[in-house]
Design a protein that fits this description.
With about 260 residues, the chain is an alpha/beta fold. The protein contains ten helices and seven strands. The protein has one domain: 3-Layer(aba) Sandwich (Rossmann fold), CATH 3.40.50.720. Helix 4 packs across helix 6. The longest helix has 17 residues. It is globular and about 55 Å long. It starts with 8 loop residues before the first strand and ends in a 9-residue tail after the last strand.
Length: about 260
Amino acid sequence: MELGLSGKRALLTGASKGMGRACATALAREGVDITIVARTDATLQATAEDIRRETGATVTAVAADITTEAGREAALAACPAPDILLNNASGAAPGDFRDWDRDVWIAAIELMMLPPIMMIRATMDGMIDRGYGRIINIASRSVKIAQPELGLSNGARSGLVGFVAGIARQGMAHNVTVNNLLPGIFDSDGQREHIAGMIDSMGKSFDEVWDARAKGNPAQRYGRPEEIGAYFAFLCSAHAGFITGQNLLIDGGSYPGTY
């Protein structure tokens, strides 16, 4: 399928590895000029070079912390008029809500909720003026299946999803959409960090928990980053202009609800 993305410009945060890298690679294969942002410069530069070598795409790498105003300014200076925006960030560590004071909660909001909102604020009107825009946030299935140990993510990411629900229709008449991807278990560093943060309280080894989570999914496996990259690329495409304000699960069927 021709996605109609050649020549578009994309700004992708949290894009040096895992799902963010997969999304960047998928767009680069479609002829999109990409700007990738992450905090660790060495990893970011290696990713940029790998994508250039594989796809021949124009790749700009910006080492910045998107949770800061200076980091957002650096990202937007490198790609001031994106047609596509990916908001992606790591989650907070698992734990017990009894241990989280106000500072911990504020830090979670400043990691998972406010930066995407600020990036949307900075880019959406330009997309509307140009008549094309795709904004996609990678959140988590935890907004639909709340996990007790992920209370910080449950709360902060739900705040982002609620915000999107309020603004996602504003650009539809101008071919601008805003959607959320809700991944389940994926073979990623983030998933490994999540499990590593849980095993001390479970009395099990990392491998035992890792294998059990895969077996507990209807697909009997973890998602592959390239699967979310392909889904993301379609949502960015010319064919997805009638989809907005949606929370789209990609979880191997683990969500048990009808709606």
